[in-house]
Amino acid sequence: MNATPATERMPALYLSHGAPPLADDPVWPGQLAAWSAGLPRPTAILVVSAHWEEAPLALGATESVPLVHDFWGFPEHYYRVRYDAPGAPALAASVRAMLRRAGTPVQDVPDRGLDHGAYVPLVEMFPGADIPVLQISMPTLDPVELLGIGRRLAPLRDEGVLIVGSGFFTHNLAALRHGGTPGWSAEFDDWGREALVRADVDALLDFENKAPAGRLAHPRTEHFAPLFVTLGAAEGELGTGRSVIDGFWMGLAKRSVQFG
C-alpha cells in the first residue's frame, strides 16, 4: 500500500462489513485487502456504521478506547480482537463544524469505541491500525437526510479523508442460509447493481418500494442506510461508481462499491 498520505481526492466507499467470523472466510479478507491496496493512503478514515444509531448525531472517541464488541454468542477469540488505531480529534473538529447548524446539535461520546461495523473491515483493509479513525452515528434512517449528511461531509475527501459507509447490501438475519442464495437476495442485489450503474439515486432512495423484495432484503433499513451517506459524499461522481466486491455470504449480498 502507498505509504504517503493522500494529496488527491479520496474515493468514497460503501462496504458490506461482515460479522466477526469474516476474518475466517477463505475469500473475503483477501478481497478487502486487495481493495485497500489500490487506494491512496488516507490521512484519516471517517466511518458511518449500521451498528450505531444515535440522535442527535454523535462523534465517537477521539483517542484510543476499547472496541465495542456488539455481538453475542460467538467464540471467545472474537472478543479479544483489538484495533488500536489513533483517534482523529482534528477530523472530529471539522465534522462538528460541517454538521452543526442552528437546531441541529452534534454531540460527543468520548468513550464510544469502534463497533464491529467499523473495525471488522478495517482490520482486513488497514491492519497496521496506524491511520486515525473517527466513527459517527446515524441520527436517522431517513435516506434523504443521510444523503444530506454525506453531501456536507464531501469536502473532507479533498483533505485525504476516506469516507466509509459500512452496512450490508442485503440484510435479513432471519433468512440466513448456509447453502444457496435465496431469490429475494439475488433479485435485490441485481436491482441495486443496475441502479448504481445508472446512478439512479431517486430509485435507491425509494428502494423499499422500487426494488424487488425491498422489504424482505431489508426488514429494517439500518444496513442499507450507510449507502446514502456514501452517495451524498460522492455527489457529482456517481457515474464513477463500480462494484469492487460482489457475491453472497450465507445468502446475503456482500456488494461493496467505490466512487471516485
Walk me through what this model shows:
The protein has nine helices and ten strands. It is of the alpha/beta class. The strands form three sheets. It has a six-stranded mixed beta sheet with strand order 5-2-6-1-10-7, sandwiched between helices. Helix 4 (143-153) crosses helix 9 (226-233). It is globular, with a radius of gyration of 17 Å. It starts with 11 loop residues before the first strand and ends with a strand.
Largest pleated sheet: 6 strands, mixed
**H/E element order:** EHEEHEHEHEHHHHHEEEE
Oligomer: single chain
Number of helices: 9
**Biggest β-sheet: strands ordered side by side in the sheet:** 5-2-6-1-10-7
Helix- and strand-based class? alpha/beta
Beta content comes to 15-25%
- Computed over alpha carbons, the radius of gyration is 17 Å
User: Which stretches are low in confidence, meaning pLDDT under 50 for 5 or more residues running?
Assistant: none
Principal-axes geometry comes out as: globular
Q: What is the averaged pLDDT score? A: 93
Let me know the number of strands: 10
Helicity level: 25-40%
What is the end-to-end distance? Answer: 18 Å
